[in-house]
Write a structure and sequence with these properties.
single chain; 422 residues; mainly alpha; hpI Integrase, Chain A; 4 domains; 7% strand
């Protein structure tokens, strides 16, 4: 017979039970005692109909209802870290870390103990997300939390661990960024390169010349540099789009990278600046030295260069180097397809509408060009040399030619031109 324990668990959940169609007792937890009692009676009634042959037997998903959720989560994470990424590749390190953290947070906040606890969790999930919103979290943060548990539920449905997705009716939050990155100008980039320490100048030059992200720059090794073809070979194991590629670089920069690689400067910098515990985790044969906190290092260099981090046009962080690179590529006059290829984006919309920036100076110059074509300058009357006896013909010709100034002819009569006598 269905029932509910009088006292809640340590997590504040109420445990209930019911007898399934085989006569075995099944347990689950909910947030309130009333809800637990109502749900237990409903489940027991459904299984009673199965026992009587009125309803079909439960699906395979019901067989996993009493499976510990932590066990299922670990199976999901192991799958993702092995083949859950694009093209059957592993998740990236950052993605795997965030997915593990978010799922642990959901288990704690919702008190999820068993697979059956995922049943009808939509209202509770929305309540927790609304709580994050009230605490001032950005829309992208809430979208990441929602995406973590949503992807996990989808995976459970694909594996037959859930009969249906309990979050299929969830509406996404507005993930529009609160802050806007601005594209640094060529003058600002030059000032930054002059003010930064020598050991970070090569890093910034590579970031501004290739648009590579911080983790991608950190993953570069000496063997990825191709001096002959002036470019960098990108490995699918650490690129964001999980695709191998070739990123062109200026020939002068390729030569300086080769000289730095021959000197072993990057490895020495890692030994110098890395902490003792992290020394063993330093990259093997690195091409560049990338600080562990790129934003913190860039803030110091921006301050030294006299460049504000925040301005009406937006903020500057390390990812703004990529924004600047893409805008410089667009301004160079390449086609949209070529700009998309150099940015390594999946669609031209991402290149032009998300990363592309508008420069007011270029807009003003374009408007001036339009105005020059439309607003014609005033017509200037043509002076004609007169001969003796030809004054009448000349004046008549000037009248027929017309003039932009209506008072010109009146001024002409008041100040007659002297006659030319030959």
């Amino acid at each position: 017979m269905a029932g509910v324990k009088k006292k809640p668990t340590k997590g504040g959940m109420y445990q209930a039970w019911y007898a399934d169609y085989t006569g075995q007792r099944r347990y689950f937890t909910t947030t309130t005692r009333t809800e637990a009692k109502r749900e237990a009676k409903r489940l027991e009634a459904e299984h009673r109909l199965v026992r009587q042959g009125i309803r079909p037997a439960p699906s395979s998903a019901d067989k996993h209802a009493r499976r510990p959720l932590e066990e299922v989560v670990q199976e999901y994470l192991a799958w993702g870290e092995a083949q859950g990424g694009r093209g059957g590749r592993a998740w990236g390190k950052t993605h795997a870390r965030m997915r593990r953290t978010h799922l642990a947070w959901w288990q704690d906040r919702l008190g999820l103990k068993f697979q059956a606890d995922l049943h009808r969790i939509l209202p509770r999930v929305e309540k927790e997300l609304q709580s994050l919103q009230q605490r001032g979290r950005a829309g992208k943060t809430m979208a990441n939390y929602a995406e973590a548990i949503g992807a996990f539920c989808d995976w459970c449905v694909q594996r037959g661990y859930l009969a249906e997705d309990p979050l299929k009716a969830m509406v996404p939050f507005d993930a529009t960024p609160r802050t806007h990155r601005r594209a640094m100008t060529a003058d600002e980039i030059a000032r930054l390169l002059e003010a930064c320490p020598p050991h970070r100048r090569l890093l910034y030059e590579t970031a501004f010349s290739t648009g590579l992200r911080a983790n991608e720059l950190r993953s570069l090794k000496v063997e990825h540099l191709d001096v002959e073809h002036a470019g960098l070979h990108l490995d699918a194991a650490w690129t964001k789009n999980r695709k191998a590629g070739f990123q062109p670089v200026p020939e002068g920069l390729a030569a300086r990278l080769a000289a730095s690689a021959d000197s072993g400067e990057a490895a020495r910098l890692y030994q110098r600046f890395s902490r003792k515990k992290a020394t063993s985790q330093a990259p093997v044969n690195p091409l560049l030295y990338v600080p562990s906190h790129t934003a913190r290092a860039l803030d110091k260099d921006l301050k030294a260069a006299g460049i504000p981090k925040q301005s009406p046009g937006g903020k500057i962080d390390f990812h703004a180097c990529r924004v600047a690179y893409i805008n410089l590529v667009i301004q160079s006059g390449v086609t949209v397809k070529e700009a998309q290829e150099l940015a390594r984006h999946a669609s031209p919309e991402l290149t032009m509408n998300v990363y592309g920036r508008v420069q007011k100076e270029r807009l003003a110059k374009a408007v001036e060009h339009v105005g020059h074509a439309i607003l014609q300058p005033k017509r200037v009357p043509v002076e004609y040399r007169r001969v003796v006896g030809a004054e009448h013909e000349s004046a008549t010709h000037e009248k027929t030619m017309g003039c932009a100034d209506e008072n010109w002819w009146r001024r002409r009569e008041l100040n007659p031109r002297p006659k030319i006598v030959r």
